[in-house]
């Protein structure tokens, strides 16, 4: 379905939603960003993956890339509160080399890939440059990021720690990192650059309405059937 037809469907679907809910969705869309994205490598525990996705939603991060070599992403809706349905998930699980395919695609989209690891001294989370989009990469619960992931990243970043523990749990690490980076991005990067384009917002609104409105698929089908065919 092309964008123009989706716009017409969206306008029709909005008739089945309260003004309050519509305004809420529009406000969320205005604060969504792809300037900061997340890469998850082989997350094992469903509740950890769900917690990270929930943090992405809370901080307005729209895009998440998942590398699923050993572990298939399993989202626990009890933890995420279905936050994953509001995100754009790009899953890499069918390539000969899922990690390389993911990182190559992310870099080709203009991202600086930052590997989060406590084992290097490259830079602290608040020192990350903001002159280009950032993709924060997080690894599995026990081992963290693989050595290949670290090698393929553009830089390494860590959260300052002052206790005996070596690292945070991945869900905590992601929440702290996303809070710090999105805060700085909102302060330093203009809305025109960090925000979603008008077309991106329209496409997401269409998707979100389909998720939110009961019987949306049937309503859409009936509406499309009512439209005159191109041959008429």
Task: Please describe what this structure looks like.
With 232 residues, the chain is an alpha/beta fold. Helices cover 46% and strands 14% of the residues. Helix 3 packs parallel to helix 7. It has one domain: SPOUT methyltransferase, trefoil knot domain (Alpha/beta knot), CATH 3.40.1280.10. Helix 4 (77-80) links the parallel strand 2 (63-67) and strand 3.
Low-confidence stretches: none
Q: What's the number of helices?
A: 10
Task: Give the topology string: H per helix, E per strand.
Answer: HHEHEHEHEEEHEHHHH
Secondary structure: helix percent? 40-55%
* Terminal-residue CA separation: 19 Å
How many domain units?
Answer: 1
Mind telling me the CATH class?
Alpha Beta
Structural class: alpha/beta
CATH topology: Alpha/beta knot
Number of strands: 7
For the record, the CATH architecture stands as 3-Layer(aba) Sandwich
Tell me the overall shape. Answer: elongated
Topology readout:
Layout: H1 3-13, H2 19-30, E1 36-41, H3 46-58, E2 63-67, H4 77-80, E3 88-92, H5 98-108, E4 112-116, E5 123-124, E6 134-138, H6 147-152, E7 155-158, H7 170-188, H8 191-194, H9 198-212, H10 216-226
Parallel strand pairs: 1-2, 1-6, 2-3, 4-6, 4-7, 5-7
Helix pairs in contact: 1-9, 2-9, 3-7
What brief labels describe this structure?
alpha/beta; 46% helix; Alpha/beta knot; 232 residues
């Amino acid at each position: 379905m092309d964008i123009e037809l989706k716009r017409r469907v969206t306008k029709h679907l909005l008739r089945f939603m309260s003004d309050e809910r519509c305004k809420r969705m529009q406000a969320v869309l205005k604060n969504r960003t792809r300037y900061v994205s997340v890469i998850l490598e082989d997350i094992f525990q469903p509740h950890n993956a769900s917690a990270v996705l929930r943090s992405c939603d809370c901080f307005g991060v729209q895009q998440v890339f998942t590398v699923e070599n050993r572990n298939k992403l399993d989202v626990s809706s009890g933890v995420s509160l279905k936050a994953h349905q509001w995100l754009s998930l790009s899953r890499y699980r069918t390539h000969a080399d899922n990690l390389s395919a993911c990182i190559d695609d992310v870099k080709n989209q203009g991202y600086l890939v930052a590997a989060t690891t406590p084992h290097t001294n490259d830079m602290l989370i608040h020192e990350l440059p903001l002159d280009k989009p950032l993709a924060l990469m997080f690894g599995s619960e026990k081992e963290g990021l693989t050595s290949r992931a670290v090698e393929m990243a553009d830089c390494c970043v860590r959260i300052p720690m002052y206790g005996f523990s070596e690292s945070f749990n991945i869900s905590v690490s992601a929440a702290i990192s996303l809070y710090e980076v999105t805060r700085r991005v909102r302060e330093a990067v203009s809305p025109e650059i960090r925000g979603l384009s008008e077309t991106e917002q329209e496409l997401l609104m269409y998707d979100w309405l389909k998720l939110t409105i009961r019987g949306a698929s049937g309503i859409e089908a009936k509406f499309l059937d009512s439209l005159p065919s191109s041959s008429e």
